[in-house]
Structure to design on (277 residues):
């Protein structure tokens, strides 16, 4: 397989390849990425892998309270070990897939957590992979025999009673989440900062995780409240090296509304995304 990867990339150097690595630890996962940064005898020639470590960390950040190494802190610790990869931006990040329970089921139908999950996925480093139906809040267990995990998408097939491709067939909750998802995804598609920009993140303070994506003059600020209660971020001095010269930002998921950066209010488990100006 390693030789197959090498030859394929030799013929098509711009081809995107990644391998599924469902393993339990960051160092083990990094071993499978191409190169010999960890002293591997075998070079897999894989540009990237399915980043289960970020997947685990995202779930913990969304579902648990902050602790010394748990909750949102696990997400920070996971990304802080990106130096183990030759290029962590080639890893594929994801929230759910055909083998595990659907995100909406796992998060207990909590729409604030769902919005945060999508915001974190689309703004962190890596290549996001979206499982069909997440955008309209499909539920179900994972695996070949799970209830609802691998069902056909409702709509587009003969005999379908519901067609969720059509906005009028979606519930109010489904349509609202779909619009949120679409807004962020379309913004990301046209953003150099979110697609190829550097990631600068800061250790969470009082359970609030702040990170930035930057490319050229474009700077995006992401703020995630990992607590089960609301928080008010009023002290922005720890981020002054990134915020210097910026007095406000446009909130991407709030109709591009302009907001000052004096303080940032956060509901429980909420994520807010700003383009700084």
């Amino acid at each position: 397989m390693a030789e197959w990867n090498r030859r394929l990339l030799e013929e098509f150097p711009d081809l995107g390849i990644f391998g599924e690595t469902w393993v339990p630890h960051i160092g083990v996962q990094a071993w499978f990425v191409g190169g010999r940064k960890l002293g591997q005898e075998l070079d897999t020639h894989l540009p990237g892998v399915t980043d289960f470590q970020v997947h685990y960390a995202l779930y913990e950040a969304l579902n648990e309270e902050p602790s010394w190494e748990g909750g949102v802190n696990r997400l920070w610790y996971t990304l802080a070990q990106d130096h183990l990869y030759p290029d962590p931006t080639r890893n594929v990040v994801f929230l759910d897939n055909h083998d595990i329970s659907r995100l909406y089921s796992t998060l207990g139908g909590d729409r604030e957590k769902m919005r945060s999950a999508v915001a974190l996925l689309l703004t962190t480093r890596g290549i996001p992979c979206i499982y069909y139906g997440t955008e309209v809040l499909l539920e179900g267990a994972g695996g070949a025999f799970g209830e609802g995990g691998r069902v056909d998408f409702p709509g587009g097939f003969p005999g379908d009673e519901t067609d969720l491709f059509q906005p009028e067939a979606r519930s109010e909750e489904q349509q609202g989440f779909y619009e949120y998802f679409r807004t962020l995804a379309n913004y990301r598609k046209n953003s150099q900062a979110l697609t190829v920009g550097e990631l600068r993140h800061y250790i969470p303070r009082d359970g609030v995780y702040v990170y930035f994506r930057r490319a050229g003059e474009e700077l995006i600020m992401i703020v995630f409240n990992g607590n089960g209660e609301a928080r008010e971020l009023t002290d922005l001095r720890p981020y002054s090296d990134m915020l210097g010269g910026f007095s406000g930002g446009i909130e991407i998921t709030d109709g591009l509304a302009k907001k000052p950066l004096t303080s940032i209010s956060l509901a429980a488990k909420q994520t807010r995304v700003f383009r700084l100006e």
Observations:
- The radius of gyration is 19 Å.
- DSSP finds nine helices and twelve strands in the chain.
